[in-house]
Amino acid sequence: MSWYIEFSGPKFGYMDYVYFLRQLDSARLSGETRLEVDFGKVTFFYPDGMAPFVATTRHLVNNGWGVGVIPPRQKDLIDYWQTVGWLAGIRDEKAPLGTGSTYVPLTPYTSGEELNSFIRSALDLMSKSQAFSDGVLLAFEWALNEIADNVLVHAESSEPGWLQMTSYPNKNEVEFVVVDTGRGIRSTLSPAFPDIDSDIGALMKAIEKGTTRNREIGQGNGLSGTLRIARSAGGWANLHSGRGLLRLMEGEPQSGEDAPHQGVVVTLTLPTSQPIDIAEALWGHVPVPAFEMEYLGDHGIEFTLGAEATNFGNRSTGERLRFKLRNIMAQHPDEPVIVDFQGVDLMSASFADEFIAKLVKELGYVAFFGRFRFRHLSEFSAQTLDTVIGQRMSV
Ligand SMILES: Nc1ncnc2c1ncn2[C@@H]1O[C@H](COP(=O)(O)OP(=O)(O)OP(=O)(O)O)[C@@H](O)[C@H]1O
Ligand SMILES: [Mg+2]
Question: Whose CA is nearest to atom 5 of ligand 1?
Answer without folding.
Answer: 185
